[in-house]
Write a structure and sequence with these properties.
single chain; 342 residues; alpha+beta; Pantoate--beta-alanine Ligase, Chain: A,domain 2; TcpA-like pilin; 2 domains; 5-stranded antiparallel sheet; 23% strand; globular
């Protein structure tokens, strides 16, 4: 009898110790997840503050009232701005600089910090006919931008200049593409940063965006499959939110340039986003002759990394060629079948 009682006590102690280990591990895991959640929230806030601040700075340069003090007079000159007021009473802005990379190109940059999380962003601002305009934003500051000189006849970028009868350059004249990218960047940021890839939260964001854009609520079930190149729901959502349910068309000036490389290209090119697999939101834009937003296959034009690639012959590109991600895409555009539009 005593042996049975002793055995029971041993089992009870063992069970209690096991439960303590499980509870302790659960609490530790919960604590780690909680800290990561707080970190993600703070990082998102830093990004939002940075994006808001850089757009405010770019807006000041676009207005031009203070450019004598903000924009350096010499190429490669740098203006350091030591203070910037925020609209919201939290977070800090530092490392504010405006660099005149070329006569008609300045790059503004700043860093936002929120509860030990920081985010640096750059704005590319070009001048044409005496007017400054922000054309692109990114987080690395080394993007190659082509700009016109004061006479409008030549263009230059980080690799040299070229001349020709075309106005502007392919990196800045595809106005439709730049507008699409600005809207889609907001779309991608909402999914990855604001909603942390949560489908339910993203559905709520989409419906809120529908209200802001004054369009009907998106009633279909949202499943944002970012790693399936054949999933076209994000193109469908984009067209309903921002383009009256129609697929965006490429600027005719770019189409005509592309037709010099491949005359068989359609006179009307429709544009479709492709989120690149396993990249956390990097994307390219594919152009074809299909007006349906959910039909991006059989493409003849690719917009990727601020460059335009055109299929040189009558055949088209296919999704299966790039479905595995960035390596596939880079391999495709570097084949003899594709040519960069210059």
């Amino acid at each position: 009898m005593n042996n049975k009682k002793g055995s029971t006590i041993v089992w009870a102690v063992t069970l209690i110790m096991l439960l303590m280990v499980i509870v302790g591990a659960s609490l530790s895991l919960a604590y780690v997840h909680y800290n990561q959640s707080i970190k993600n929230h703070n990082q998102t806030q830093a990004e939002l503050i940075a994006n808001s601040a850089i757009k405010s700075l770019a807006s000041v340069i676009e207005k031009g009232d203070q450019n004598d003090q903000i924009i350096p007079s010499e190429v490669n000159g740098v203006t350091n701005i030591y203070k910037m007021e925020l609209d919201q009473p939290f977070g800090t802005i530092s490392d504010i600089k405006v660099t005149r990379k070329k006569k008609n190109l300045v790059i503004a940059t700043l860093k936002a910090t929120y509860s030990e999380q920081s985010y640096t962003v750059y704005a590319y601002i070009t001048q044409s006919k005496g007017v400054w305009k922000a054309i692109q934003y990114d987080t690395n500051g080394n993007r190659s931008i082509k700009v016109s000189d004061s006479t409008g006849g030549n263009t230059d970028d980080n690799t040299g200049g070229n001349t020709g009868g075309d106005s502007g350059s392919t990196s800045v004249t595809a106005d439709t593409v730049e507008k699409m990218k600005t809207k889609f960047d907001n779309f991608i940021n909402a999914f990855y940063k604001i909603c942390n890839q949560n489908q339910t939260s993203f559905t709520q964001w989409i419906n809120q965006e529908c209200v802001k854009q004054n369009v009907p609520i998106y009633t279909s079930n949202v499943y944002f499959d970012v790693n399936n190149p054949y999933n076209d729901q994000y193109n469908d959502i984009y067209s309903k939110l921002y383009n009256s349910s129609e697929t965006e068309k490429l600027d005719d000036s770019i189409v005509q340039k592309a037709k010099k490389i491949n005359p068989s290209i359609s006179d009307t090119i429709y544009l479709h986003f492709l989120i690149i697999k396993n990249t956390n939101g990097e994307y390219c834009i594919l152009g074809n002759d299909n007006s349906q937003s959910n039909q991006k296959d059989n493409f003849s034009i690719i917009f990727y990394n601020d460059k335009i690639y055109v299929r040189k012959n009558n055949n088209t590109g296919y999704l299966w060629q790039i479905q595995e991600g960035k390596t596939n895409l880079n391999n495709l555009i570097n084949t003899v079948d594709w040519k960069e539009l210059e």
